[in-house]
Prior knowledge:
The N and C termini lie far apart (46 Å). This protein has a single domain (3-64), classed as 434 Repressor (Amino-terminal Domain) (Orthogonal Bundle), CATH 1.10.260.40. Helix content is 64%, strand content 0%. The chain is built from six helices and no strands. By secondary structure, the protein is an all-alpha fold. The longest helix has 11 residues, at 3-13.
Amino acid sequence: MELGARLKKARESKRFSQYEVSHLLGVSQKTLSNIESGKSIPNIFHLAKMAEIYELDILDFLARQRVFLTKKTLNPIRAIIQN
């Protein structure tokens, strides 16, 4: 299942309308519709807010989409030079 479809399912399971969620996110209803239909991808801030609204663990939710957030590591050469 695509990210947008999962977000739509999460919204519907909480019985929120697109209007309600778009208002909480500060975006238009059309923007939310485009996200849920897969026409656009939410930015990380909107995704985090949706996870909060839908009471989702954002890391688990993203992992199901095979998206993994990792800590940025220093370039090994730069790390050696800095030490």
